[in-house]
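debug: dumping io for the single-chain case to check the tokenizer round-trip. Nothing else runs in this session.
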Amino acid sequence: QVRLVESGGGSVQAGGSLRLSCAASGSTDSINVIGWHRQAPGKQRELVATIRSGGNSGDSTNFGDSVKGRFTISRANAKNTVYLQMNGLKPEDTAVYYCYIYTARPYWGQGTQVTVSS
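debug: decoded output
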């Protein structure tokens, strides 16, 4: 079993920054993908950013089109923790942000609210 604990959400004005953190514990020996998705009211859940473990080839990152150039994702392997640095936030970034990992199956965090006001 895997447990994901998210932190760092909140409210910010447009143009501001927030940093989300997600700590994974439990059966995390073989995390293939770790990252973030988000869901705004009335919309489908969408990719924000993920890191795919590449073994000897190194990790690779993937970003949703709407956040490219503004958000960065990083990982502290020793602690199975992933960070999402969000800069240049826009009102359309307002959503519940969910931490996500994939080991033998997908796991989701409980979500953290990010609200960006204009």
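debug: round-trip ok. Residues 96 and 113 are 4 Å apart (CA to CA).
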